[in-house]
Amino acid sequence: MHCIPTYLSKDSSYPYKNTSLGEVLQQKGINALWEERGTAIDTLVIHAISAIERTKTSPHDREEILSLFLEYEVSAHYLILRNGVCHALVPEEKKAWHCGKSIMPPPDNRHGVNAFSIGIELVGGEPGKPFTPAQYNSLVPLIKDICSRHSIQKILGHEDIAGSRAIKMGIRPDEKKDPGPNFNWKLLHGITSLLSQREDSIPL
Asked: What is the set of active-site residues?
């Protein structure tokens, strides 16, 4: 699976100089939006992202989305645009900041899911904007590729690790609901038997 390297850093290879994104980087003084990883990767987390609260006219624009990452100082390993183009934002061997305060579903119950997971962001997913066939066509081979290189034990949604359960346990103040009802988990059947325990995604 080919993804365009788009690392969010200020090194010489940074591809978005002289853009609003580069200006945000400079203003914040951010060198990178990741940390060293000291734990083996065994989980894959799927997210949805939109800049609808920033702009009504171009909420799915790549620059708006990347600027959103920088504004909130969050990141993910991969970003899949509406047209299916995949950007590799953070090296897999690094810990991206995509889960926030989080806990794995029982009986696992590990906290701090960033430490052992890879995060994939899909642009869109808000009401009236289901994910596109092109996005699924990129997501499926990406997941296969990740699973071929890591001992992935679980594929989860952000909502599974940072949702209502995390709030009830006092782990986080806000509930994450992505990728939400617009994500078709059933399309992942046949790829892997590692899907999360969901009514709409029963493991094979």
From this structure: 121
